[in-house]
Amino acid sequence: MNVWLLYLLLHISGTNAAPGRLTHQELPPFQKTVRFNVYTFIVKAADTESAQTATVAAYRGSLLLTRFSQPISGRLTGAEVGDLDGNRLPELYLYSTDTNAGLAGRVRGWQFLPERLATITPVQWTTSDAGYMGLDTLWTTRQSLCRQFPVYAINNSDARPTGTNRRICYRLRPLGLNYQLLPE
User: Fold this and answer.
1) Backbone phi, then psi, for 3, in 5-degree steps?
2) How far apart are CA 93 and CA 178, in angstroms?
3) 122 and 130 Cβ atoms separated by less than 8 Å
4) Per-residue confidence band for 97, with pLDDT thresholds at 50, 70 and 90
5) CA dihedral of residues 96, 98, 103, 109 (deg, nearest 10)
6) Whose CA is closest to 40, among 29, 51, 32?
7) Long-range contacts for 105-108 (Cβ within 8 Å, ≥24 apart)?
8) What is the average pLDDT across 85-113?
9) pTM of the model
């Protein structure tokens, strides 16, 4: 049985919440392990009412390189590792969404250089697209961080999905001693 499903079944049965409904306080904490060559990253997030604190432990083989915590606004929903600039060193990307209905959040990232940890300028997912309602899907390719979201037709009374999606990809570029993600 899926661990997540087992957690939900056990947790819901011991609460006063309506059957099948979870309150914000009952959501399980985020935990994910991602790997890049000999590097392993363990990402955990402790949930609070309106924000989370992500804790990252970075290993090269069995050697702990660094452990740090980062406040995350909204809810941490994903973690991926990549090498978007092709330097054979990993970058770690954490994705968060707004706590209101999965709307746009942000990406935080770090480049793990031999001599230091470099920050990747956070990306705000706001877009000027009139039909943007959030619900982004994010992933890394060999050279880009990409996001895709459904496009909605918005009229006076409601918003309806059009059945089309929009994709935007970002490239990693140096910015002084750090890095930034720029749309392609």
Assistant:
1) -60, -40
2) 14
3) no
4) confident
5) -20
6) 32
7) 105/73, 105/74, 105/75, 105/77, 105/136, 106/73, 106/74, 107/138, 107/145, 107/181, 108/54, 108/70, 108/72
8) 81
9) 0.75
Residue 21 makes CB contacts below 8 A (sequence gap 6+) with none
* Token pair recorded at residue 136: 């982004």
Per-residue pLDDT tens for 28-87?
588 999 999 999 999 999 765 556 789 999 999 999 999 999 888 778 888 999 999 999
180 has which bridge partners? 121, 173
First to last CA, the chain: 41
Across-strand partners of 173?
Answer: 180
- 167 has which bridge partners? 148
Contacts of 137 (CB under 8 A, 6+ apart): 147, 148, 149
Out of 32-36, 91-95, 97-101, 109-113, pick the least confident.
97-101
Token pair belonging to 50: 């309106």
Tokens representing 102 are: 């999965």
CA–CA distances in Å: residue 147 to residues 51, 111, 138, 174 = 23, 20, 4, 21
